Amino acid sequence: MTGPYGILSPVWAGTATAQLMSEESILRAMLRVEASWAQALADAGEAPAASAAAIVAISEDPARAGLSVEEIASQSPGGGNPVIPMLAAVRRALVEAGESDAALHRGATSQDILDTALMLLCRESVAALLSDARRAGTALSRLSQEHRNSVCVARSLTQHALPTTFGLRCAGWLDGLTQAIQRLELAAAKLPLQWGGAVGTQASLSDSLGPQRAAALTTDLAARLGLRAMPRPWHTQRQMILELAAALAGLLATLGKAAGDVLTLQRPEVAELREPTVPGRGGSSAMPQKQNPVLSTLIRSAALAGPGQLSTLYLAAATAEDERPAGGWHAEWPSLVELARLSGGAATRAAELFEGLVVDPGAMAVNLRLSGDAVLSERLMARLGSSFPGGRQALQDVVRRSAVERVGLRGLLEEHLGDSIAPADLDRLLDPHRYLGRAQEFIDAAVDEFNQQDFNQQDFNQTAAQPEGPTDHA
């Protein structure tokens, strides 16, 4: 694997997204943009075919042309971005090979290359992380149905509240994940080509080729790259990036919420869940008895780190002054890349977590009994409040006495109600399985919505190549 290695970012270390968003991949994506543009020009008869072929060869094997990430990175401060030293290296390689650079970078600017390269990598990264996110969703769908009748206690403000089912809890996690997937799919499908020239007018291309010819070639380039054709440049209007970044952060948030719940439910004093274990994971360097919840911890770490990256992107968009931002655009690159890495890593860990999650309905039943019959107090107030001797206040006092003095609520109710309620009726009122509302219906709704997603990668690619608005054609 080519770096980054993620020694301080274990949530995405070793994942597909880490490889897709490596610095080597960024360099190759920039070269791919240049090569695709050269091919478009050559196919249209606007550049020598041999020059375009040489650029394509360099993009396919940068090392043979002497291009390295280390060299490009070390020289990028000179021009403020990596495109400028990359172009110098490509031109040098072309000269050494005896080829013309006539097809290289014609009418383009550094922002066109880097923005478009990042859009390519974001689309590929989103495709990879969506695969893992759907794996996690499939696992949650299964857990929702398998445990639709596993009654447990719902907690409100950390305290025991009412009965629920673990299936419904999983359905809640699934619902958030489904919405995050849908939002991310939409954002990724809209990622466009960026091709505006020096200040977003395409003046150089239009002057040499004519406006209609420039428009046609720009649309052709978008199709070659599998990106959405742009109705106009967006070099200082960063809404596309913000939509994608917000969708990535939304995925992190919903996975972080689920991981936080799993962390709580794994505590030994709760012990309702247990992470899947594999050799070499979860151990402690000092306490051999521990089995740490590593997957949940890593997912939560990504969810906590994501908002900071998103904040930088919003700030950069808000300060994108004039026709080429000084600093705002530059601040955007590492935050967008890291947000993609975090999201991809979290999705990968979530898939493994939920596919192997160990559930203990017995522990759930034990914990539910800790609150005794008082966990049904809401139902008791609704059913008995008006007829209880002394009214609602008296019934509240009985419930409170049961909790404070740890006296069985059933006995107190029988003492106050006497023969006014049949034992069988009191049994039904105090049965947590009979106070689950529409839990089954809500589980089915969440599972059905996830299962109804029929995302097709071919449709995704076709959508991406369509322009968002009217574009001139030759």
Descriptive overview:
By secondary structure, this protein is mostly helical. The chain has 19 helices and four strands. The strands form two sheets. The chain has a two-stranded antiparallel ribbon with strand order 1-2. A two-stranded antiparallel ribbon has the order 3-4. Helix 4 (69-75) crosses helix 5 (83-96).
Summary?
With 474 residues, the chain is mostly helical. The protein has helices at 16-20, 23-43, 49-60, 69-75, 83-96, 110-146, 166-189, 203-209, 211-225, 239-266, 294-318, 328-356, 361-369, 377-384, 391-405, 409-417, 423-429, 439-451, 457-464, and strands at residues 151-156, 159-165, 273-274, 358-359.
**Using only CA atoms, what is the Rg?**
29 Å
* Strand arrangement in the largest pleated sheet: 1-2
Globally, the shape reads elongated
Low-confidence stretches: 456-474
Question: β content, as a range?
Answer: under 5%
What is the rounded distance between the termini? 44 Å
Helix content: 55-70%
SS field, number of helical segments: 19
Largest sheet: 2 strands, antiparallel
Outline the secondary-structure elements.
Blueprint: H1 16-20, H2 23-43, H3 49-60, H4 69-75, H5 83-96, H6 110-146, E1 151-156, E2 159-165, H7 166-189, H8 203-209, H9 211-225, H10 239-266, E3 273-274, H11 294-318, H12 328-356, E4 358-359, H13 361-369, H14 377-384, H15 391-405, H16 409-417, H17 423-429, H18 439-451, H19 457-464
Antiparallel strand pairs: 1-2, 3-4
Task: Looking at this protein, list some descriptive labels.
19 helices, mainly alpha, 474 residues, disordered C terminus
